[in-house]
Specification:
This protein has about 525 residues and is α+β, with helices and mostly antiparallel strands. Helix content is about 35%, strand content about 15%. It contains 24 helices and 14 strands. A hairpin with a 2-residue loop joins strand 3 and strand 4. Helix 16 packs across helix 18. The longest helix is centred in the last third of the chain and has 22 residues. The radius of gyration is 24 Å and the shape is globular. The two termini are about 35 Å apart. About 40% of the residues are buried.
């Protein structure tokens, strides 16, 4: 075994408010400068919707990620030969209109305009050209389904639904949406790293964070094509590629990344997972139906004595192993099994997992079990009060007829596996039934116990899930090991030549906090 450590994340979608506080925090620290105006290392999308950049999920359009060829995989739109053929013209790159042309407002017009019979306005001007601009879209243009006709209905995940299912999702009284926050996944099998001709992109050995060495980057932009999540960007001012760096200067001093620290809904969790690097190629090459189970198998039990011994032999510090044992990510992904990766079919083995949203499911079940109610009564769908007089068969059975079709949810989080998606939603529903029994008491203990047993949970595990998702404190949500950057710096210094060059294009310096 080649055991390594990986900083990983979980986002709980039922708790996301869509407030964009995370987005603004990231923007103010990392991309508030020339050439990065259009970049959003963190963004929050509304689903259904086309996202940012437009239709980033459509790999027939952008050719991102990996595809299976025989028993192995190869990059879909990048690589040595494809990169050489497209070296002067890459047809698979998103253009500025796919993101949006960044803009600001000429506020001086409000105070410098000559006297007139009409109210002066602050005209929109491009942050790239400085010229007046007719705003046509932005990074969250379809926020809260505001762009439904042009954006939500063009969501690539809707392609797997029948026309009737698609139309039902946009009936006014049936309409539902949820928020999908996204950052770089810091994948185990990152396509951006494999595609870079100059070797500027690398994965840090101590924590798995994927970074771009600005001194080595030659602006080939193959990384932008290769990343299926479109989380690598080109800075038109510096001529370099940039991406989310998981706020590693903050992590190195024990602080949570800016987007996670500022999260109002407390939806974000950060921790360490141990994995076997020797299995990456085999698991990334698995059949599509086995992709998620293969990825989850690559993460190892941090309490297993054999794993601990192998980790120590591979140079992983005791503090990192201890952090892996306390990791909330391990609980969500491996113990409780309620979090899933986004678009596992891209075969990058992403390290950002999502707990799927439940509210649209509840609304559907309530309406299906109260067909004769008025619209006012159906509004009670957003409350749990209907659970007490509904049988478990009805509750769990109707999850498969939810307002967000399982095909849609499975397309996002289940690599198309509807059964797997239903299992996660039933488990989340069982927790809700159990807590209804505890807090309100209008659900019998027998029904509560039966719901937990149906999905393979017991009361201690249900309590642990409830506390981690509802009552967790800062130190419970963010378990960050000591950085041990001194070891990495010593290694780089030992390979430096007499001029102080490391071979990586930069001279190592002590880590600094932000």
């Amino acid at each position: 075994m080649n055991i390594r450590s990986q900083m990983s994340m979980v986002f709980h979608l039922d708790k996301c408010l869509g407030c964009h506080t995370c987005t603004v925090a990231c923007k103010n620290i990392w991309t508030d400068r020339k050439g990065a105006e259009y970049m959003w290392f963190n963004n929050v999308e509304t689903k259904p919707g086309t996202g940012y950049p437009t239709k980033w999920e459509d790999q027939e359009l952008y050719k991102g990620g990996w595809e299976k060829k025989g028993n192995s995989i190869e990059l879909k739109g990048a690589g040595k030969l494809k990169g050489l053929l497209n070296i002067f013209h890459n047809p698979n790159l998103p253009v500025i209109d796919d993101y949006y042309e960044p803009f600001t407002y000429k506020y001086l017009n409000l105070i410098e305009s000559p006297q007139s019979d009409v109210q002066p306005v602050a005209r929109a001007v491009s942050l790239i050209t400085g010229k007046p601009l007719d705003i046509k879209m932005g990074p969250n243009w379809d926020d809260d389904l505001s762009g439904t006709p042009d954006y939500a209905r063009k969501d690539p995940n809707l392609a797997k639904l029948t026309p009737a299912e698609q139309e039902a999702m946009f009936q006014l009284e049936q309409m539902a949406f949820y928020y999908l926050p996204r950052i770089c996944n810091h994948c185990l099998n990152p396509a951006c790293v494999a595609s870079c001709p100059s070797g500027a992109i690398y994965k840090r050995g101590e924590d798995g964070v994927v970074l771009i060495d600005q001194n080595v980057c030659k602006a080939w932009r193959m990384c932008i094509t290769a990343c299926p999540y479109k989380k690598t960007y080109y800075n038109w001012s510096t001529g370099k590629s940039e991406k989310c760096l998981l706020c590693f200067p903050r992590i190195e001093v024990g602080e949570a990344p800016a987007c996670m620290h500022s999260c109002v809904g407390r939806i974000r969790y950060l921790g360490v997972l141990l994995y076997d690097a020797d299995k990456i190629e085999a698991y990334a090459s698995a059949d599509e139906k086995d992709l998620i189970s293969s990825q989850l198998d690559i993460y190892l039990d941090p309490f297993d004595p054999k794993v601990i011994a192998e980790a120590k032999a591979n140079g992983i510090a005791d503090s990192t192993i201890k952090a892996a044992q306390a990791s909330p990510i391990y609980k969500f992904v491996k113990e409780w099994k309620i979090a899933l990766p986004l678009h596992a079919e891209f075969r990058t083995l992403p390290n950002l997992f999502y707990v799927p949203p439940m509210l649209p499911v509840m609304a559907t079940i309530s309406q299906n079990t109260n067909d004769n109610d008025t619209l006012h009564e159906k509004a009670k769908a957003w409350d749990d009060s209907w659970l007490y007089d509904t049988s478990l068969d009805e509750i769990f059975g109707n999850i498969e007829n939810m307002r967000f079709p399982l095909k849609y949810m499975a397309s996002l989080f289940g690599a198309g596996d509807e059964k797997l998606m239903a299992e996660k939603l039933k488990k989340l529903m069982a927790i809700r039934i159990y807590r209804r029994h505890i807090t309100v008491g209008d659900i019998s203990k027998e029904k509560s116990d039966a719901a937990l047993a149906e999905v393979g949970l017991d009361i201690p595990m249900a309590e642990a899930i409830y506390k981690m998702t509802s009552l967790a404190k800062f130190d419970d949500r963010f378990v960050i090991p000591a950085a041990h950057r001194e070891e990495a710096i010593e290694m780089l210094e030992s390979t430096a030549d007499v001029k102080g060059n490391t071979g990586f294009g930069w001279t190592p310096k002590p880590a600094r906090g932000i």
